[in-house]
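We give this protein:

***
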Amino acid sequence: MSAILQVSNLVKRFGALTAVDDVSFSIREGSCFGLLGPNGAGKTTTIELMEGIKTPDSGRILYRGEALDRRFRNEAGIMFQSTALQEFITVREIMLQFSRFYPASYPIDELADRFSLHEFLNQDTRRLSGGQKQRLLLAISLINRPRVLFLDEPTTGLDPQSRRNLWKEVQQVREQGATILLTTHYMEEAYELCDEIAIMDHGRIIAQDAPDSLLAAHFDDVVVQLHAADIPRELGETEFQAVYRNDSAHIVTGDVNRTIAQLLQYDVPLDRLRIRARNLEDLFLELTGKELRA
């Protein structure tokens, strides 16, 4: 597939801070591209530059080979990280308001059916729950039948059921031919939805590929996970280099049989043992570090 969006040598500074530092990548038409990174990595600034909301200091962004123009604005849908809906109007009224911004749009009742909004169409936007608001915001981002859809942390704050329902909607959007650019802090979400991911840190892209290809390139081991109460901390840390998180002890090993034999040698109970493959969260921490970011 050809690239629908191309980012070349993008730079954005805020005073002495270089938020986006010579970033380049392209997004294939019809794909879902994930932009990941810790807080302050430059993800939101990058996506705002691509949406045309901010102006880069240097570099260029092309949509179908051309600079961002009226065609791009008519064909792009955006679901912001945080959106304040106008108050004292109904769901139907706010959908109608957004539909009038574009030369062509979905019928409101069609979107209401698709996102289970009919029950709330005549309800004041102030009375929506978090999940209802997210469904409405996704519906609004699709109201112009976009060819490219920007989703900036769309499931933040949602419960697991609401999050997975929104994943289904995003997958349906992609199946209908739209290209998606997603930013998220949920590694499972990125793995589930994205064909390709780029990990940013300190304004630069530090890794980029399909999720499984990135995992294969960085890891040739697995994680043996035990309940923390089953293996004394001193034994786990000294003999197995275990990392303790909450109630679990995680042992990284390239030889599972040898590790299990050693655990049995020390009479460690295996009733609650679990073996898992490395995942995107492991990769994220490996590449960006474990310290908290403001």
User: Anything to note?
Assistant: The chain has two domains: 3-216, 220-277. The chain has a mean pLDDT of 92.
